[in-house]
Amino acid sequence: MQKPLLLEIKGNSLDDGPGIRSVVFFKGCPLSCTWCHNPESKTIGAEIGFEAGECVGCNTCMNLCPEGALCRDHPFFVDRSLCNLCFACTEACPAGALRRIGKPAEIETIVADVLRDKPFFDTSGGGVTLSGGEPTLFMEYCGQLAQSLKEKGIRILLETCGLFDFTKFETLLYPFLDAIYFDIKLIDPAAHTRYCGVSNGRILENFKELHIRAQNGGVPVLPRTPLIPGITDTEENIRAIADFLVSCGATEARLLPYHPLWQEKNRTIGIAAKEGHSAMNNWLENRTLEACRTILLQAGINL
Ligand code: SF4
Ligand code: SF4
Question: Which atom of ligand 2 is nearest to the CA of 77?
């Protein structure tokens, strides 16, 4: 069984499903979306992060780094071509400016952690959300985690990019889920490949399969579209999504407004700003959101 690294377990979330939830964020994703709001979740391995604003300039880290990988003249402070990920610096940093991104966790530890909030789940209609990154990269692990949570009476929601092996998913994880939030970003396969790193054929097929099951009493599946300025929020793409959902018989969807704060997160893990995506420097405009809403509502999709 492939064991994942976790970014964090975030308690008291009101944004990742109904009620009060604990969100388990997995590290690693089969997509590589240009606008990813959690860029530290893209790669599967551990990373080092540096928050310049937190650094108090004590030089503890620079004095102990065995590789000489920390340098004030480096644009990201950490020279990742030299760093061996020993994490001596993150352990020693007194300010929390250097941190390890991605830690292993045993299933029993996660269950014990989230179980403390079960009274809040029960009174609010909440539960645990598996998110990321992409939880289905670790299908067996997530299946066992979901089963353990289910046995404790906890409801489970999966947030997914939709790119997974359906047969494995149906066997290992699906039986333990109570709801699925399924991202549909772009309908045009070439655009999907360009902006998300892979084509979308299997994603759309997986949505269709899940929706058929939902219509027949299976796990409810909610399609979601992040509105990325100039990329996914175009009239052409939203109309194509509306047509696709109508062809599946879907009657409900959710739009996720964009924010550009991920660009600062990129810097903390040593990724420079990309050129050619200037529209993504802006927040989503209300009139664009309304235009997208109108297209879907006119197609009979509730939001
Ligand atoms: S993780 Fe280790 S090698 Fe990398 S910067 Fe920190 S101390 Fe240096
Ligand atoms: S140990 Fe932490 S606070 Fe001190 S210089 Fe390094 S990053 Fe900055």
Answer: 7
Residues of the chain with CATH 3.30.70.20: 47-101
**Is residue 222 within 6 Å of ligand 2 at its C-beta?**
no
Span 47-101: which CATH code? 3.30.70.20
Q: What is the CATH number of domain 5-44+102-298?
A: 3.20.20.70
**pTM: predicted TM-score of the whole model, two decimal places:** 0.92
127: β partners: 21
How do residues 91-137 score in pLDDT, each as one tens digit?
999 999 999 999 999 999 999 999 999 999 999 999 999 998 999 99
